[in-house]
Specification:
With 626 residues, the chain is mainly beta. The protein has a domain of 144 residues: 2-Layer Sandwich (TolA/TonB C-terminal domain). The chain contains eight helices and 46 strands. The strands form twelve sheets. Strands 41, 42, 43, 44, 45 and 46 form a six-stranded mixed sheet that branches. It has a four-stranded antiparallel sheet with strand order 1-2-3-4, covered by helices on one side. A four-stranded antiparallel sheet has the order 5-6-7-8. Strand 45 and strand 46 form a beta hairpin. The longest helix is centred in the first third of the chain and has 18 residues. It is globular.
């Protein structure tokens, strides 16, 4: 068996690289070029850039080709590739512009950088549907990939392109202290008039909440499909969605028809979630099970929770075990846990995901075939089709969707750099500096044997330090703490227990339920500009630190920076009201994770009545706050 596995490991890199259309010799030439560039520049960031590389030296960034020829001169504060390297976003001080891959300026450096400056752009494509939202003088508009103005810079509201024809305007009403949305065409014509909430629901439908907080459905032409009558409409799954009205629940389809009328109340007032077309997950007496469309119990109510995420199967968790059922309720298999779900990756569909058994991890594909056995000590999703799997504390391997190993090494992270090349390496536990290099699909690398031995040594030291008790508050953090008259900054939130072993670097970071846009919406809905701060014109950044505990709850909220006027208290209360997160994982197990959230309070004067309109901007997990 070992001999067969070895043959697979040796043969696979040839197949993988050949599929990318790059020979072993060509790939070696690219690696050699990267190694030469590393000798000249302190930063290389090329994923999604084709044959171009974003480079940095000191505090300046630009773009070169693999031969080192300058494409965009080294003069910008930051450069981020977009559209797979067809465009580059350039940042300089408070301004930004856009250049193409020849270095020609498509959009001049005269737009506000603040719209994107707090966003980690490397690997993120801001050109949704070939459009990019830009800001100039505080006013937002939309440009196309050629830099032409599609929507003029006249909107105070935030713009969110829905597709190539529609956009959502998101503003904030000072009187009711609530966000509002309007669906418009790019030419400015209103499709759905201003509502409390408008978001894309399914296909051509939009979920709408009116000023009475009732939900309905509209189509993309603005026609009412379902009048605003429900207290709640869930997001659809398999073309069905749960609804709630006057304490009664039911299910509607994408045409707005009540498949299970709410009047029948056959689910006892509990909200049914259509995990599959045939089964509905429910909670009764704090336990989870599944019923059919008639309300008959198919899977008994003896499980702790349902992680959701699959179209034709469902997972119910009981204690330390996850149970996989098909759409008839038949038990297929059991695992300790499922660590990623196929519906969670919109930009790069997940073709395999991690499972664990006896605290060891493996990989299964979307047909539930086990493509990598549960023999690994950790797992990290790379790009939806590849996973970095931990063999032990010092060694890992990259596995593709066929379960074949592309390369091995002492790596703790890997991400695609382009053309069958991955950036790999480790973080030094003391300084958080990166030590790494590049590996191709043939297993060729820019790292020397000496580099690999040094990485193994550092990993061994880091494992030892993890087991040593440490003081979690550094001298630098202590200097940042500002005392206020509301909460003793830096002190553990009242009533919180001491939390042991809090991680700051993990394989998988915690996730707010939904996505980043859901977190954005939660903050907008639950954080208001305090009257005292607004009346006194207080602006600035509040920084709060908290722990996402291994069960997903929030604890140990600390205020590190406050601007006064009740802003710090408002942020702390907002954080304390957060729902349960998906916890961070380390070595395949949930762990406590320390999370830093900077919140920027800002006032603007650009309103007709001369009053100051409030804005709350935020960014999390970013140490480059101002």
């Amino acid at each position: 068996m070992k001999r067969i596995a070895l043959v697979i490991v040796l043969m696979l890199p040839l197949l993988a690289a050949a599929q990318n259309g790059i020979s072993k010799k060509q790939s070696r030439q690219l690696l050699d070029a990267l190694k030469r560039l590393e000798q000249t520049y302190s930063y290389l960031g090329g994923q999604h850039s084709g044959d171009l590389v974003v480079v940095g030296k000191g505090n300046l960034y630009g773009v070169v080709d693999f031969e080192g020829r300058t494409v965009i001169s080294l003069q910008y504060d930051w450069v981020a590739p977009a559209l797979n390297g067809e465009r580059f976003l350039l940042f300089s001080d408070t301004l930004m512009g856009i250049a193409d891959r020849s270095g020609r300026m498509v959009v001049p450096m005269e737009y506000d950088a603040e719209l994107y400056i707090y966003t980690e752009l490397n690997g993120f494509d801001p050109f949704s549907y070939g459009l990019i939202v830009m800001s100039k003088g505080g006013k937002q508009g939309v440009l196309d990939t050629a830099g032409h103005t599609v929507v003029p810079m006249v909107y105070d509201e935030e713009l969110w392109p829905v597709d190539s024809n529609l956009m959502i305007l998101q503003g904030y009403d000072l009187k009711i202290r609530h966000a509002y949305h309007t669906l418009m065409r790019l030419d400015g014509d209103t499709v759905i008039p201003t509502q409390r909430i408008i978001n894309w629901w399914d296909g051509n439908l939009f979920r709408v909440q009116n000023d009475k907080e009732l939900w309905g459905l509209y189509d993309r032409s603005g026609r009412v499909v379902v009048a605003c009558q429900y207290d709640h409409i869930d997001y659809p799954h398999n073309g069905l969605a749960a609804v709630k009205k006057d304490g009664r629940t039911g299910v509607i389809d994408i045409r707005g028809h009540e498949v299970i009328p709410v009047a029948e109340n056959r689910f006892g007032g509990k909200t049914p979630y259509p995990q599959t077309r045939n089964l509905f997950v429910l909670e009764k007496n704090d336990r989870v099970g599944a019923v059919d469309s008639l309300g008959n119990t198919v899977i008994p109510f003896e499980y702790d929770f349902n992680p959701e995420g699959f179209a034709s199967h469902l997972i119910l968790v009981q204690g330390d075990t996850s149970f996989l059922f098909d759409n008839t309720g038949r038990l297929i298999s059991t695992y300790d846990n499922f660590y990623s779900y196929s519906d969670c990756y919109a930009s790069e569909p997940l073709s395999l995901f991690a499972v664990s058994r006896n605290r060891l991890l493996g990989l299964v594909d979307t047909a539930w075939r086990e493509v990598a056995p549960c023999i690994y000590k950790g797992a990290q999703n790379v790009d939806g089709r590849h996973w970095l799997m931990w063999l032990d504390e010092n060694n890992s391997c990259l596995i593709d969707e066929q379960g074949q190993v592309l390369f091995k090494g002492p790596y703790r992270f890997a991400y695609p750099f382009g053309d069958g090349i991955w950036r790999v390496g480790i973080y030094e536990c003391a300084s958080n500096n990166v030590l790494g290099g590049y590996v191709d699909a043939y297993g060729q690398t820019t790292l020397s044997r000496k580099d690999l031995k040094e990485m193994e040594r550092i990993l061994t030291e880091c494992e030892k330090k993890k087991k040593e008790p440490t003081d979690k508050t550094t001298a630098r953090e202590a200097d940042e703490i500002i005392h206020t008259d509301t909460i003793p900054a830096g002190k553990t939130d009242s009533g919180e227990e001491e939390i042991d072993e809090v991680f700051v670097f993990v394989e998988s970071q915690p996730e707010f339920p939904g996505d980043d846009s859901a977190l954005h919406m939660f903050i907008c809905m639950n954080l208001s500009y305090p009257d005292q701060a607004r009346d006194n014109g207080l602006e600035g950044v509040v920084i709060v630190r908290f722990v996402v505990k291994k069960d997903g709850t929030i604890g140990n909220v600390k205020l590190l920076r406050d601007i006064g006027g009740g802003c710090g208290q408002a942020v702390v209360e907002m954080v304390k009201s957060m729902p349960r997160w998906k916890p961070a994982t380390e070595s395949g197990k949930p762990v406590n994770f320390e999370f830093t959230l900077p919140v920027k309070f800002q006032l603007t004067n650009d309103v007709p009545d001369g009053t100051r309109e409030e804005q709350c901007l935020f960014q999390y997990n970013n140490n480059n706050w101002k």
